């Protein structure tokens, strides 16, 4: 899915229709929590993940 149109509400609407999606979120997207944004405190080339219900980020 194009990252210009990716959002949590869109993913939720798709799930309501039993459709799944794999999306790319830009780091400046308001749906991305601060803990998942780049940080000098985190090791280089590391990653963060999170989940809520049936959604994983």
Automatic annotation (TrEMBL):
Ranges of Polar residues composition bias in the record: 48-57
Superkingdom per UniProt: Eukaryota
Region Disordered, residue ranges: 25-57
Pfam families, A to Z: DDE_Tnp_1_7
InterPro entries referenced in this protein's UniProt entry, alphabetically: PGBD
Residues of the PiggyBac transposable element-derived protein domain: 1-57
Signal peptide from the UniProt entry: none
Stated name of the protein: PiggyBac transposable element-derived protein domain-containing protein
């Amino acid at each position: 899915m194009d990252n210009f149109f990716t959002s949590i509400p869109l993913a939720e609407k798709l799930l309501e229709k039993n459709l799944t999606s794999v999306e790319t979120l830009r780091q400046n997207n308001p749906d991305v929590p601060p803990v998942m944004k780049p940080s000098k405190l985190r090791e280089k080339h590391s990653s963060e993940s999170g989940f809520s219900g049936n959604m994983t980020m």
